[in-house]
Design goal:
148 residues; alpha+beta; two-stranded antiparallel sheet
């Protein structure tokens, strides 16, 4: 079996052979699948980091506002409500906010919303890089198979 090596533009040296045992899978379906997996994983991590670092000042209210108090505050003027909430406000660090918020569904819904654009960007970038590598590898393969 004749084995030759293929040097991609910015990647590893890939073995090629005339049989199917060493061929690198340049199929579009495999590229789409790998890109989708990378986009889902990396996009979610980017969305989490963006959302967690976007919180500058987090506040909690001690004691917490009950439903009865909320009904009572709706009858008060806005200035009085702001004064009442300001009196109860306790600042939190980003780490404290993250520890308390991670258990709630709103946190994960916001992470999912913040990760849509990064996921699409990673997917497009993976497809583009894979297409460039595939195009370069196929061109090299065609040039090496030409009779001299």
């Amino acid at each position: 079996m004749k084995v030759s090596y293929l040097q991609l533009q910015s990647g590893p040296v890939l073995p090629l052979c005339e049989g199917n045992s060493f061929t690198y899978d340049f199929s579009m379906k495999a590229l789409l699948f790998r890109s989708l997996i990378a986009a889902l994983l990396i996009g979610q991590v980017i969305g989490f980091v963006v959302y967690a670092t976007s919180i500058e000042k987090a506040m909690k209210y001690e004691p917490p506002v009950s439903g009865d108090e909320m009904d009572r505050m709706q009858q008060l003027p806005l200035r009085d409500v702001q004064a009442e909430l300001h009196r109860r406000a306790v600042p939190m660090t980003r780490w404290e906010w993250l520890k308390e918020s991670i258990h709630y569904a709103y946190f994960w819904k916001d992470v999912a919303a913040k990760s849509v654009v990064p996921s699409v960007g990673v997917f497009i970038a993976c497809i583009w890089v894979g297409w460039l590598e595939r195009r370069g590898a196929l061109r090299i393969q065609r040039e090496s198979s030409l009779p001299y």
